[in-house]
Amino acid sequence: MANCAELSSEYTCPICLDILKKPVIISCGNDHVYCEACLEEYAEVSDPRCAECREEFNPREITPAKELWIKMKETTTVCSWCEQEMVISKLRSHLANCSKADRSIPKFKPIGETSQCIPANLPNRSTFTCPYCMLKNLDIHGLRNHCNQEHATNTAAVVCPVCSSMPWGDGNLKSANFNNHLNTRHRFEYDTYVDYQQDDDEMLQAAIRASLDQC
Hints:
By secondary structure, the chain is α+β, with helices and mostly antiparallel strands. The chain is built from seven helices and eight strands. The strands form three sheets. Strands 1-5-6 form a three-stranded mixed sheet. It has a three-stranded antiparallel sheet with strand order 3-2-4, with helices on one face.
């Protein structure tokens, strides 16, 4: 019997990092498994790649992971919050409603002293999702290195996840040459150079100056 905090990665989706829901096998050639719903966003990606092995796959060619699902329905575990025993296939829905689960969000605390006010609802401008393959949790440097290595020849017009997260960003504006844009405009961490208490024009100008200084 496994504790839910110690579940094998075999039962975890690499995209949402949650317990697999309706697990399916993709056509990457390595039998990697994801939640069926997590693959829906890949349907619009021009060059979808497996988040684990980086091999191309067709998001419309998926196969139900029947053996794994049977295993999840037969293997028992224990909720780490209420200690209730159940099969793994029911754990995800249980955790969403467990009365003893701690769902509080840790209060933001800066590493050092800062002159900037801390917003009540701080948006995530630290990690981003690759617009080509939907690989998540990449910082600016990681996103740039990933795109240069995995998508150097991709010419699809995509929305820049860094720009769209900024106060001045437009979530509908696509970059015709994203890799060039990424290498030219995003060579620094925005939190270091940009004061989010300024107005949009001042922040944009500060970002451009910092980008040029890093070239």
